[in-house]
Specification:
Structural class: mainly alpha
Number of helices: 9
Distance between the termini: 23 Å
Largest sheet: none
Helix content: over 70%
Shape: globular
Length: about 130
């Protein structure tokens, strides 16, 4: 199973709710030198924009992976810029407002944010 397949499986697990940060961190736990359980625990309070609508958990999860992979601050800037280019904002509250205005339901919207973050992360990790 590749990382995107694992991410999709986490997002669709009917028994456990993996928040957006966990859904990004867990498939990259090996890159971070963590077990899947440790990655899940690390991301527990970063969902829903750090539990108060701030920076999207998918973005914060991806930033944590970049840090643990010892990628440069420039890689983090690229991730945030590219995510913002696709979605106009980085904050959870703003993203959800835009989704609602576009008639997109919350779960599919959040799934899409997670998948976009994973795609960006895979690209940035592949760049040497």
């Amino acid at each position: 199973m590749d990382r995107m397949e694992e991410t999709r499986a986490l997002r669709n697990d009917p028994d456990v709710h993996y928040n957006c940060a966990q859904s990004v961190l867990v498939p990259f736990s090996d890159v971070c030198g963590l077990t899947k359980e440790q990655a899940c625990a690390l991301g527990a309070n970063f969902g829903s924009g750090m539990r108060h609508g701030s920076t999207c958990g998918a973005v914060t999860g991806a930033l944590m992976v970049l840090g643990m992979a010892q990628k440069s601050p420039e890689a983090a800037s690229v991730l945030m810029r590219r995510f913002r280019e696709k979605n106009q904002v980085l904050d959870c509250a703003g993203l959800l407002q835009r989704a609602k205005a576009n008639g997109e339901e919350k779960k599919p919207h959040c799934d899409r944010m997670v998948y976009e973050a994973v795609e960006l992360l895979e690209e940035l990790l592949a760049d040497q």
